[in-house]
Amino acid sequence: MEFAPVQHLMDLAAVHAFYIGLLEGALGHPVPVPREVGTGGDKVAQSVNSLEHWLHLLDMAIAPLMVRDGLKDSTSTDTAEALLRHFCRRASGSDPDRDKTDFVITFLYRTSVPPERQVRPEVDVDEPSEFEEEVYTFLGDEEVVQLPEEHRQLLREFPFVRQEVDEMRTFDELMDSGVIQRVREIKQRFGKSFYHPRVLATIAEYNVYFGQHFDELFKQTAQHIKSFAATVQEQGGSIMSRVDGDVTVKHLTEVKESEVLNAEYGSAQESFRKISMFKKAVDTRTRSGSRPMAPGQEHHAPATSTGRSPGHAPAPALAASVPWVEQVPSAINPAVEQGKLRTMEDSIRNFVLAADPKAANIVPLRNGNLVLSGAEVDAFRADYGGEKSFRADYAASLRTIMALQGRFLAEMFEFKAKQGSAYLWKPHADALTWLVTAAQKVEQQCGEVLKVADQRGLAEKAAILNASVQKLKTHIQMAAKALQGNLG
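Structure (tokenized):
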């Protein structure tokens, strides 16, 4: 990418002025500039060389977030265009330079494309967009450069990712999906092709789409949390009452969505995780139908005639989470997968409780139906609270098995649907691998519950649990076969 020396010098001068402004704002005092750094004069080449060396140093002092925040206050695109040319000329493979370019191209997209045309209903990354043509204009490059085929294929991942994001309906689902890190990894794989106009244009449009969807779900969640906290207080609950675990009503009242959305990225990420946790706590409390407990208050389960026998072993209830599994794929976060299992169990329970009793055994999932036996329906209707008994663990075993089956169905559908993609099938293959291992663990633990049933002469319950375990084994075998066929 060639630039005339004078244009090059003007770009460096604009970048220099932008950087100095950011640093002076952060430091609160002027920045001493070396005497040899100039922005004019007859010796253009010498000035370019001096400015480039000086900007290399300033680049180490300017964090990507400083660029993002600085662009928010900018009213002119001239500086942003100069910044874009500066980074594309350098074509650095470093994460900070790529992140800075990411913020710059997204800013230019927002300021150049009318709001009503920013998020197109369908995106064809194999054809140039209007904004891609503008990027060529920004760069002053009339020659259309072809992308390597492997990077063209990588670019085709974005419509798949966008479709996946579009199907997410809650903020905690978005946070648990890992899609933010996956997109970051895709951007890293482009290498120097990241600075190609088509890649930049595609990334900018995706960033704007994702940002709008993210903000919408975040604000809905924040409002939901604060509404719950206000209701508790209106009903006379203490601000220090516990909602679930260590989460209190006070935590919920302190959520300030506007501050979080405008915060520095690092601290904002922690706030996003906390708010996702608060949302799950509120959902858990709302489903249970009980009010938050005051600090120090404990829940005591009622005594039951069933009690606990010496041979009794706890079933793998999702409330205690599925145990840690061996051979977890490196890209998998077990806590996230356990959260998806809990969400699946909650979804099944909510449907069973709300459905017509005659049709409660057929649970509609996003990509198919989950068929429950009569005993499995009863397990989702049962509410034993914190009871420590055989009947509670028996019901929990059935619920866990059905939650696993629901997750198998969901991941198998996505895995097969995305096998034509070069990369998007991999997260679902990893999830299936985790599910196979987790299901095998649950199968072993159900064996302990079956022993207790046999000891007590509960042949019918043992037969029902055995039937559910056999259905789970079928899903394990289907997943294992699919993975072997894809990876073998």
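Strands lie at 242-244, 247-248, 362-365, 368-371. The radius of gyration is 28 Å.
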